[in-house]
Automatic annotation (TrEMBL):
The chain crosses the membrane at residues 6-26, 33-53, 59-82. Pfam families: DUF2809. It comes from the Bacteria. This is DUF2809 domain-containing protein. Keywords: Membrane, Transmembrane, Transmembrane helix. It comes from Flavobacterium bernardetii.
Amino acid sequence: MFQFNIKYFLIFISVFIIEVIIAVFIKDNFIRPYFGDFLVIFLVYYFLLSFINADKNKIALGVLVFAFTVEIIQYFQVLSYFNLEKNRILRIVAGNTFSLEDLII
């Protein structure tokens, strides 16, 4: 089940670098909020493939469920409900605002 895969890990690192570049240098209303959210799905997918030797469809489905869960957390403002909106790490993982487009794209 657990097996390190260098190929997927290198893809993960590449996508991570792109995400950091987007976060640090791009301050627009399209690439950062939409393309960045789109890429993070691949980031999580390839991170999991780097360490887990399992059916790729099951991993993809798990990542999709995770992404939808994050959007639901944003919609219901769960961090505010539990008074956790000041926790920087949780805010980064959960994001700031709900967007219906994120569920479709």
